[in-house]
Specification:
Blueprint: H1 2-14, H2 18-25, H3 40-47, H4 49-73, H5 81-97, H6 110-119, H7 123-140, H8 143-163, H9 174-191, H10 193-201
Helix pairs in contact: 1-4, 1-5, 3-4, 4-5, 4-6, 5-6, 5-9, 7-8, 8-9
Length: 211
């Protein structure tokens, strides 16, 4: 029941589609421009740096806030609090990626996944994922590749730390937590399937490149 509550709460928060709302305030449907999704990267390309930063912050916060609420509500369930934070975050990503009121056409969930990583409150995981993302984008200028490798590093780092008992989570929930984080990685990669095709054919857009 706790897991379902967290998923539902997360999904509701995820429905706050920052990019779509910001675009509407500017008189456009962000899904009709650029790559066609409502995430921060497409908003940056279409509406500029200020819009991209605002949407990025919004997409991160809409995950951090419910995750903090989860920690408060379930603080007595010490061994599984972190697991429930993951479920809440996954609900946010589902709401962001598949908002029912937008015909299930949302973003790709990377910024919201970043919100989950922040909400875990583990500096090791945060720094590794951030370093992988930034280094990849710096070297290749492909935000999509940085995103894919970033969510993959989240799964790998989490699994290593969880298996070796380096995370504040009960032993009986270690495998389940790894499965949930694996779901984050799979969903992130799945949402970038069109980007992967363009990466393989050399037609993917590079960050900062002129249209």
């Amino acid at each position: 029941m706790e897991r379902l509550i967290c998923l539902a709460m997360g999904y509701i928060f995820g429905l706050f589609e920052t990019g779509f709302i910001y675009g509407k305030l500017k008189g456009i449907d962000i899904r009709q421009h650029g790559s066609g999704n409502s995430g921060s990267t497409n908003t940056l390309r279409v509406l500029g740096k200020k819009a991209g930063i605002i949407v990025l912050i919004g997409d991160v916060l809409k995950c951090v806030i419910p995750c903090i609420i989860t920690r408060v509500i379930f603080k007595d369930l010490v061994d599984m609090t972190l697991l429930l934070v993951l479920y809440t975050g996954f609900g946010v990503v589902l709401g962001h990626n598949f908002p029912f009121y937008m015909n299930f056409k949302g973003g790709k969930g990377i910024a919201s996944t970043g919100g989950v990583i922040i909400s875990v409150f583990d500096l090791r995981i945060f720094l590794i994922c951030l370093a992988v993302f930034l280094l990849t984008v710096f070297i290749t200028r492909y935000v999509s590749l940085g995103s894919i490798l970033g969510v993959t590093s989240f799964f790998i780092t989490w699994t290593v730390l969880a298996v070796y008992g380096a995370l504040p989570i009960g032993q009986m929930f270690v495998l389940e937590s790894c499965i949930v984080v694996f779901a984050f990685a799979c969903l992130g990669i799945f949402r970038h399937r069109s980007n992967i095709k363009r990466l393989l054919t050399g037609t993917e857009n590079k960050f900062g490149a002129k249209k």
